[in-house]
Amino acid sequence: MHKELLLATFILYATEMLVTTHTTPPHCAHYDMKQFLNTPEAIWTYKTTYTRNLSCEMNVMESITPSEIIYKRKFVFDQIRNEVLLRGMFLGLYPERMTVMTRGGRPVCAEILLYLAGDLSCAVIKVRPIGRRAKVRIELRVRNSSVTRGTVQADCRDYFHQAAGRRLTYQEYNRGCQHAFIFSTLNVKALNE
Predict the structure, then answer these.
(1) Count of the separate structural domains present in the chain
(2) Is pLDDT larger for residue 78 or for residue 9?
(3) The dihedral of CA 15, 19, 23, 27: what is its sign?
(4) Span of the secretion signal (predicted)?
């Protein structure tokens, strides 16, 4: 009897912990990371809460399966264009989540989809880097077709600011980013893991 009561208490406690720590802010809809990433378009990090000397970060899918995505992350750091090959592992029970790893399999971060526009043009993502001093950040990511039209949906912008709370936000995308990667033929520094 005591074992059953103890087990029931533990299950209730664990369930309550999972429910209250799911995501911040909470969302009602059930989002799917694969839906947003499954596109040949570049996906730009438009705004972020992370302070860094980095701009023009974009992800370009190379291949996708039900369990993983292989993509290139391109960015400008200290005025030098860089790229790194990454692998995202989708979590079957949690379709809004993805674990990001290097080509060699070293975990980099967990990404959690907090909001996804109905037309899949933009999303708000919580990024949890793996590391002792790493800080969680919130990012507004946008498909290339949206930024070339010059519009980012108001609901995505609003949700990003709600999720960011009082943290400072930084504009990571600018018009020059298109020329830095899409139209440029200059060499890009490939980073090792």
Answers:
(1) 1
(2) 78
(3) positive
(4) 1-21
Residue 74 CB-half CA count within 13 A:
22
Q: What is the mean pLDDT of the chain?
A: 83
CATH classification of the domain holding 120: 2.40.128.20
Torsion, Cα 161 167 173 174, to 10 degrees, reads: 100
**Other residues' Cβ atoms within 10 Å of the Cβ of residue 96:** 26
Residue whose structure tokens are 């590391």? 131
Taking the C-alpha atoms of residue 5 and residue 2, their distance in angstroms, rounded to an integer, is 5
Taking residues 170-189, what's their average pLDDT? 75
At 122, list the tokens.
Answer: 């933009």
Which pLDDT tens digit goes with each residue over 59-115? 999 999 999 999 999 999 888 899 999 999 999 899 999 999 998 999 999 999 999
- CA angle, 100 then 104 then 106, to 5°: 45
pTM, to two decimals: 0.79
Question: Cis (ω within 30 of 0) for the bond into 40?
Answer: no
- Is residue 137 within 8 A of residue 121, CB to CB? The reply is no
Inside any domain, residue 8:
no
Residue-range definition of the domain harbouring residue 70: 24-190
pLDDT in tens, 33-42: 999 999 999 9
> Which amino acid, one-letter code, is at 8?
A
